Structures are given as structure tokens and as C-alpha cells.
Amino acid sequence: MFNVKILGCGSALPTSHHLPSAQVVEVRGKLLLLDCGEGVQLQLRHQHLNLMRIGHVFITHAHGDHCFGLPGLISTFSLLGRKTPLHVFAPATLQPFFDCIIDSFCVGMQYEVTFTPVDPERCEVVCETSSFRVSSLPLRHRVPCCGYLIEEQPSLPHIRPEMIAEYDIPHWAINNIKAGADWTAANGEVISHERLTRPAEPPCRYAYCTDTMPNPDLPAWIEGVDLLYHEATYAEADASKATLVGHSTATQAAEIARAAYVRRLLIGHFSARYDDETPLLHEAQAIFPATELADEGLEVTLRV
């Protein structure tokens, strides 16, 4: 399974209909938290997500609407008796805030919290497990900021069921064949791995890009992703305001999606000045039709 759950898609000022930035990405049973704005714990509860399954937190930058939920989350993990480590990734500018959390509220915890600084000027792998790989994406904001590209690890090929029956392949040999081995039949015939298998589905890829002005380098790093979340804080009519504060318009987000040949675009990080984001949706769809609005509680499934 690979899906994205929106916990918060507003900007710095919380409103009655949007909370600050936070998302959960589920990859093969692992939960990754992207940003951790205020209210993240309540949203996790409302969406019936098990907090204790979160093993990795990725923060984009040191602005409060992206990290003020982190102290409470770390403390709650301790109250719940967490034993497994929690890994936090963020630009180095967030290190003093993180150290303050640990020194002030987390003395004597029974689990380890690690902080890994991310270079916001480089596109590089920052975390890799057997299930997923996460890379940093340099963004253009008022402070050092990076997005993240989350990718499934490639799967092994699928063995063809008809080949198992035709050549009486035992269960113990199946994983070896998937890993690249040929099979020798009872009559001595060698059946190649390529004939016995079919390719696995391509790995799912998701790009999370907020907060940022349009970055002309971004399309090359995220080309062809299954889903792009790109901030669209303002409408094009407010483009001068967007530039002043280091954000993007819905039009600019759609132009990035089109240039990167992504499959789907999800826009969010909406300014509190808009009571209705439908005009932003229409603005983006005029350039990139496969655009959707983010909303709290929205779940986008990339693979079942």
C-alpha cells in the first residue's frame, strides 16, 4: 500500500477550516510524517491513525506552522510507553528547537529520538530502508527549506502462475526465481528467469514541496512522479504578495506540474485570506487538468 493522508493544508494562520501543514504517507505498512504543525495529534486521532506506527518525521523548514506540533507528539510517545526509536529529519536550522524540546520536556524518556540534519541546498537521499527511500528537494523560501521525494523500493518480479504449474516448481524455489535464478526442470531443460517471471509494477513516487516560490530545477528532480503536492498559497492575482513572502500561486504550481510531467497534482498550503479555494483549483486546472484540492481528511491512494 502507498497512500497519502492530509492532516493539515493551511498556511501560517490556522482557520476554522484548515490546520497547519502535516501529512502522513503510508508505504508498505510504514508511516512517515511530513511536517508537524499544530493540531497534528488530534488529526491523527480523528483519522484513526496509530501514532505509534510513525517511525520517521520529515520537517521542511524552521517555521512554526510546520514544526510546532513536534514537542507534543514526542511527549505523547513517551506517555504511551514508546520503546522504538523516532527519527527526525530537518534542515540544520531546526536543531536548536529540537534540542530545546529534548532538554526541556523529554528527560528520562524510554525511547531514543534522533535528529538528522538535511542539507536544503542539495538533492540527495537522506533516508533509506528496505521499504522506502526519501530524498531532499531544495526549495526557495525565506529560510532554508527542502521538500521530500518519497519512493517505494523496487519490488521483485512476479512469477507466472502458469509456469509454476507447467514445470511443477516447488514453493521453496519461488523466491530464488524472483531474485533472478533460472529453473531446471525434471527433464533437464533450463527455463530462464525472464520466461518464468513478469516485471513488477514500477515503484510509486510522491513529491512533497512546500513552502516555496517556483523552483526551475524542481521538474528535473521529480519528473513523472505519481503525485506532486505543491503549495499554492495564493491566487495569481496575488502573485506579488506570493513573491514577497516566498510562496507560489496556483498557476505557478500547475506550471511546475506540467513541466515535470507528473501524473497528478495536489495543491495546498492555502492562505487564510481565501474562504473558498475553488478559484485556485480552476486556475491550476486551466494549465494542468489533473489537479485536486488538498483538504483535511483527504486520502489519496497511489497503490492498493
Question: What are the key terms here?
Answer:
304 residues; 10 helices; Metallo-beta-lactamase, Chain A; alpha/beta; 2 domains; seven-stranded mixed beta sheet
Classify the beta-strand content into a percent band: 25-35%
Summed up, the domain count is 2
The fourth-level CATH homologous superfamily of the largest domain is Ribonuclease Z/Hydroxyacylglutathione hydrolase-like
**Biggest beta sheet attributes:** 7 strands, mixed
CATH class of the largest domain: Alpha Beta
CATH architecture of the largest domain: 4-Layer Sandwich
Main β-sheet, spatial strand arrangement: 6-5-4-3-2-1-18
End-to-end Cα distance, whole Å, is 5 Å
How many helical stretches? 10
Total beta-strand segments: 18
CA radius of gyration is 22 Å
How would you describe the shape?
globular
Listing every helix as H and every strand as E from the N terminus to the C terminus, the arrangement reads EEEHEHEHEEEEEHHEEHEEHEHHEHEE
Provide the structure class: alpha/beta
Average pLDDT reading:
94
CATH third-level topology of the largest domain = Metallo-beta-lactamase, Chain A
The parts where pLDDT drops under 50 for at least 5 residues are: none
What is the helix content? 25-40%
Q: Can you give a write-up of this model?
A:
The chain is α/β, with parallel strands linked by helices and 304 residues long. It folds into 2 domains: 2-155 and 201-303, Ribonuclease Z/Hydroxyacylglutathione hydrolase-like (Metallo-beta-lactamase, Chain A, 4-Layer Sandwich); 161-198, no CATH class. 25% of the residues lie in helices and 28% in strands. It contains 10 helices and 18 strands. It has helices spanning 40-46, 70-79, 95-105, 161-166, 171-178, 193-196, 218-222, 239-245, 250-260, 278-285; strands at residues 2-8, 22-27, 30-36, 54-58, 86-91, 113-118, 125-128, 132-138, 146-152, 158-159, 183-184, 190-191, 197-198, 205-209, 227-231, 265-268, 291-293, 299-303. The chain has a 7-stranded mixed β-sheet with strand order 6-5-4-3-2-1-18. Strands 7-8-9-14-15-16-17 form a 7-stranded mixed β-sheet. Helix 9 runs parallel beside helix 10. The longest helix has 11 residues, at 95-105. It is globular, with a radius of gyration of 22 Å. The termini are close together. The model has no long low-confidence stretch (mean pLDDT 94).
